[in-house]
Amino acid sequence: MTRTRLYRNGTLELENFPVQDISEYVGDPDCMVWLDVRDPDSADFDMIAEEFGLHELAVEDARHEHQRPKLDSYRTHLFLSAYAVTTEPANGVFEASEVAAFITPNALITIRKGEHCRIDHVVERWDNSPDLAKHGVGFLVHGLLDYLVDGHFKAVQELDEAIENLEDLLFQESPKEIQAVQRRSFELRKSLVRLRRVVLPMREVVNSLLRRDAHVVTEPMMPYYQDVYDHVLRATEWTESLRDLVTTVMETNLTVQGNRMNMIMKKVTSWAAIIAVPTAVTGFYGQNVPYPGFGTHAGFWTSTVVMIALSALLYATFKRRDWI
């Protein structure tokens, strides 16, 4: 699946034209071309490399999955690797789709793997700022990065909300809720670790584009890239704080379980002490030797009163100390 766009002198002129026609516009300095390819095969990569004169190492990185977010510089183009992310608000499950981009002086080629990168949202950002198209390919790259970074920021926000919901379950007495806290804490921590691998390198990616030797960002586009960089920093710092927070939740959960176990042990011990009183009294009166009240009704009533009185005294004492 491919999509194409042609801008001439900052104005959108053609859309979804045949890929074979790209060669007619790539050499024109007044033209700016965008080509998007989803889930390309080997023939697609060969076509792209030949049409735009891309370096073989950059094409190889685009072919293979699980690349680290980065920006590589070659003689005629730049290679960008990044990720579009989504999370499930209910449980914080994290999903990522790899996005590769080749940036030439007058063309942007995006390679998408998976379905989580909604390219329509990127196109919508371009259409909402048509006055910026005159600033060259940096305009297209900004729309792509802005979409990706906003996705990172939204994912961090949803994970934050999931952790807040998890905190509400910390002090629940239900065994099912306790198990849910343990399971979801582990899942959220795993999602945050994966998100950190995606978000943290983006600082260097955007910072590299901001350098003047990259020749991508023109002076009028600089504030827009600075805004994207600010969002990257905020998402990074937020991710780091959430990692600490979910670790605290896990440690607090263990502490709560330990305290709950101590309370249970106190109650069991207290009831065991109360039960030990009648056991001791009946054991004493069960001796095979004569004692005061042996074989009489007075002995029975004395032992009964002693058991009730001592048990009530122990119960009142433990209750006052909140052991029962």
UniProtKB/TrEMBL annotation:
Topological category with respect to the lipid bilayer: Multi-pass membrane protein
Q: Which InterPro entries match?
A: CorA_cytoplasmic_dom (IPR045861), CorA_TM1_TM2 (IPR045863), MgTranspt_CorA/ZnTranspt_ZntB (IPR002523)
Q: What is its main location?
A: membrane
Residues spanning the membrane:
268-286, 298-318
**Gene3D superfamilies under this entry?**
CorA soluble domain-like (3.30.460.20), Magnesium transport protein CorA, transmembrane region (1.20.58.340)
- Which terms are listed as keywords in the entry? Cell membrane, Membrane, Transmembrane, Transmembrane helix, Transport
Q: Which domain of life is it from?
A: Bacteria
Q: State the compartments where it is located.
A: Cell membrane
Kindly name one Pfam family recorded for this protein: CorA
Instruction: Tell me the protein family, please.
Output: Belongs to the CorA metal ion transporter (MIT) (TC 1.A.35) family.
Its recorded name reads: Magnesium transporter CorA family protein
